[in-house]
Amino acid sequence: DGGITQSPKYLFRKEGQNVTLSCEQNLNHDAMYWYRQDPGQGLRLIYYSQIVNDFQKGDIAEGYSVSREKKESFPLTVTSAQKNPTAFYLCASSIQGGVNEQFFGPGTRLTVL
Amino acid sequence: AQSVTQLDSQVPVFEEAPVELRCNYSSSVSVYLFWYVQYPNQGLQLLLKYLSGSTLVKGINGFEAEFNKSQTSFHLRKPSVHISDTAEYFCAVSTSSNTGKLIFGQGTTLQVKP
Q1: CB of A23 within 8 A of CB of A34?
Q2: C-alpha to C-alpha distance for B104 and B40, rounded to whole angstroms
Q3: Is B7's Cβ below 8 Å from some Cβ in A?
Q4: Is there a contact between A48 and B99 if contact means CB atoms under 8 Å apart?
Q5: Average pLDDT, integer, range B7-34
Q6: How far is A97 from chain B (nearest CA, A)?
C-alpha cells in the first residue's frame, strides 16, 4: 500500500534535547511538507521541499531543521532552540509543488517534559 | 497576504440534521480552496477541492461546498449527518500554483449527537 509513514506515533523528550521526527513516503511524490498543529490554531507550515536537496522555510521555521537527501524521506529535527516544542506534527506530500492534493501521514505527538 | 477564517470553533448537531461549516478567505488573487477532515489522533484526509469551473463542488462522504467569489466564502455542507462525521474539519487556501503551500483555518469541530 502506498502512503506516508511517520514514526514514532508518540515521543517524549527532556527539555534541551534535540529530537528527530521521521517521515517516509512511497507515493513517488516530489513535494513534502511539515506542519505543526496546536489546539485552536489549525496547521502551520514549518518547512517544505519541492525537490531533493532543496527546501524552504515555512511560517514557523525557527527552532527546526530539515534535510531532503532522498525523494522518499523528509526528517524534521526539533532543536533545543524551539521554545515550545510540545505539539502534534504532521508530514504531507504531493505530486508536485503545484495545486495538488496533499496526502498526510498519521502524525507524531511530541511531548517535551 | 492570504488568510482563512473558520467562523465556528465548534458545531454541535443532532444525527440526520443538516450542517454547514463556514469558511471565509482573504486574498487579492485567484485562489484554490480545500476542505480536509481529521479524525482524532490521525492525519488529514481531503474531502473536496475547488480549483476552477463549477462553483458547486461535491466531495466524499456526501459533503459538498460552494465557492462564492463575491463573498470570499467556501462553506461546507451536508444534508444529513451521521455519528461517524464527528471530527475536526479544516478549510485551506492556496494562491500559488508553484509551491503548493496551503494556508489552513483554525478548524471546526463537528459534534454529531444521537
Answers
A1: yes
A2: 18
A3: no
A4: yes
A5: 93
A6: 4
Please count the other Cβ atoms lying within 10 Å of the Cβ belonging to residue B56: 11
What mean pLDDT value characterizes chain A? 92
Contacts of A92 (CB under 8 A, 6+ apart): A4, A32, A33, A34, A35, A102, A103, A104, A105, B43, B44
% pLDDT > 90, chain B: 75
Give CA–CA dist B90/B34, Å, rounded: 8
Separation in Å, CA of B1 to nearest CA in chain A: 12
Smallest Cβ–Cβ distance between B107 and the set A31, A42, A104 belongs to A42
What pLDDT, in 10s, does the model give residues A34-85?
Answer: 999 998 888 999 999 999 999 999 999 999 999 999 999 999 999 988 889 9
